[in-house]
C-alpha cells in the first residue's frame, strides 16, 4: 500500500492511499492536486472518506465526488475495524474516539492516517469530553510496531515541540526529532513519537518523575494521561 500527502489551507494535510490501480482519498481538501496525481499515476479513486467530520477535513468531499465516480464512506457510519479493499490490498478503519466521537484512524501495512487523534509531536484536543475513550484510542495506536509511520491531519510540529520542551525540559530527543522535520512531508514513526510526544509518554520514567514532583495522580496509566492533559 502506498500513500501520498497533500497540504491544503494553512496546515491541513489530506491523503490518497492507494494500491496498484485503486485509491481512497482521506480528508481530501486539495482536490485538484489529488485528481492530477491520480490521473498521472493511473489510479482510480474508488472511495472518499474522512478521519472525522470537522469542517476543515471535509471541504473537498463534494467536489471530489462530483469529478469522479468514487463512493463516499461516511466516517460517522464506519464500523470499528471495518476493512476497505483496494485491488488485492486492504486498509482498515479503527474507531478511535476522543478528539471527536466519530474519529477514525486508517491503518495499512506500515502506516496510519490519524487525523486529529495523534499528531506528529502532540495529540488533538479532547472535544468529545471523553478522556477515557481518548486514552484507549491512543493506547491502541501506540501498541503498534515502532516503525509504523504517522500521517496526521495537520502540521503542528514546530509548535508541538516548543510545548513538549516546556513539559519535559530534560528530554534529550527533541533535537533529533526536529532534524527529521521536513515541511514538504510531515511524517514520523511511533518510536519517534514515543520519544518526544508528551501526551503518549505516560509510561516514560522521566514523565512519571515529573508528575510525582508536581504531586499529580500517577498511579495508573490513565491517571498519568489525565494528569498530563490537565496540566497542559
TrEMBL record:
This is GloB: hydroxyacylglutathione hydrolase (Glyoxalase II). Signal peptide: none annotated. Keywords: Hydrolase. It comes from Desulfobacula toluolica (strain DSM 7467 / Tol2). GO terms for molecular function: hydroxyacylglutathione hydrolase activity. Its EC number is 3.1.2.6. The gene is gloB. It is an enzyme of class 3 (hydrolase). The keyword Transport does not apply. Pfam families: Lactamase_B. Residues 11-154 form the Metallo-beta-lactamase domain. It comes from the Bacteria.
